[in-house]
Design a protein that fits this description.
Blueprint: E1 2-7, E2 24-29, E3 32-36, H1 43-51, E4 60-62, H2 68-71, H3 74-87, E5 95-98, E6 106-108, E7 112-113, H4 120-123, E8 128-131, E9 136-137, E10 142-144, E11 162-165, E12 168-171, E13 179-184, E14 187-192, H5 199-210, E15 215-221, H6 229-242, E16 246-250, H7 255-262, E17 275-277
Parallel strand pairs: 3-4, 4-5, 5-8, 14-15, 15-16
Antiparallel strand pairs: 1-2, 1-17, 2-3, 6-7, 6-11, 9-10, 10-13, 11-12, 13-14
Length: 279
């Protein structure tokens, strides 16, 4: 599997790409081309073009969860695919994989809408919708983990704003938050968006689904932004036990949390333009 960072808060030194506080990764697994999250704007398209990546050749678009910094790029992607159709340019109709609740309206007091701007119905005109609460295998080695079981008592304890459902407004615990797991020759590679479900919960679910406890790498946002002391300490203890070979923490992981993680894991730098490859 090959992974390239299209969007992150940071860019690599001496690489002439732009960043934004968002996430988008381009993944190739065998012949399949996958876009995991689409960032906040059209920046992922601009960076992909500069990297020589053809986003008209996508097989899958996968959403980690329904927040603005992971979904608001859907509008520019729809425009890109629609314009290709109008101009008669060869393009694929990607399959869109997400939890069914990724498209709920969401708000935080004082901010307004922070959920997706496009509806499931509208997106179905451009994508083949493949919404799943359970795990969904993208290839025989890459799986969308579906709704994450929240087994521990130190992660995902507080809601983040409100979501609107058919039954009314409720506290938003981001139950749609998910991730990808890849079965490499040496163990699992976990690719997360924000890890609202808890990175330890995510790793445990990946291990259950894949039947593998070795972890080669953890890539993505870990939702460690000034975390409660107990959450940070329990996360460090968990990483000490699991001993991932590498950790590429980015996006919603603050400096203090990265420094702490570096004490128990081989922490690596992440930025737009980063290329990773796994057997």
């Amino acid at each position: 599997m090959k992974l390239r960072v299209l969007v992150d808060n940071n860019t690599l030194i001496d690489r002439y790409f732009r960043g934004e506080p968002a996430v988008s990764y381009f993944i190739e697994e065998g012949p399949k081309k996958i876009l995991f999250d689409v960032g906040y704007s059209d920046l992922f398209i601009e960076n992909a073009r500069q990297m020589g990546i053809d986003l008209l050749d996508l097989d899958f678009v996968i959403l980690s969860h329904g927040h603005l910094d992971h979904t608001w790029g859907l509008g520019p992607l729809v425009r890109l695919l629609t314009e290709a159709k109008i101009e008669g340019i060869d393009h694929k109709r990607p399959k869109l994989v997400a939890h069914p609740e990724a498209f709920l309206p969401r708000k935080i007091p004082g901010l307004g809408e922070i959920g997706p701007l496009l509806s499931r119905e509208g997106l179905s005109r451009t994508f083949d919708m493949a919404l799943s609460r359970g795990p969904a295998w993208i290839t025989d080695r890459l799986v969308f983990l579906g709704e994450i079981e929240r087994d521990n008592d130190f992660e995902a304890q507080m809601p983040l704003g409100k979501s609107s459902t058919e039954y009314g407004e409720r506290d938003d615990f981001l139950i749609d938050d998910s991730a990808l797991a890849y079965r490499s020759a040496g163990g699992l590679v976990i690719v997360s968006g924000c890890s609202h479900a808890g990175i330890c919960n995510i790793l445990e679910q990946a291990m259950r689904i894949c039947g593998e406890r070795r972890v080669v790498d953890v890539v993505g946002g870990l939702h460690l932004l000034d975390p409660p002391e107990r959450q940070m300490m329990e996360t460090l203890r968990y990483f000490e036990r699991v001993r991932p070979r590498h950790v590429h923490a980015c996006h919603c992981t603050d400096l203090a949390s990265k420094v702490a993680l570096a004490g128990v894991a081989d922490l690596k730098e992440v930025g737009v333009g980063l290329d990773l490859e796994y057997d």
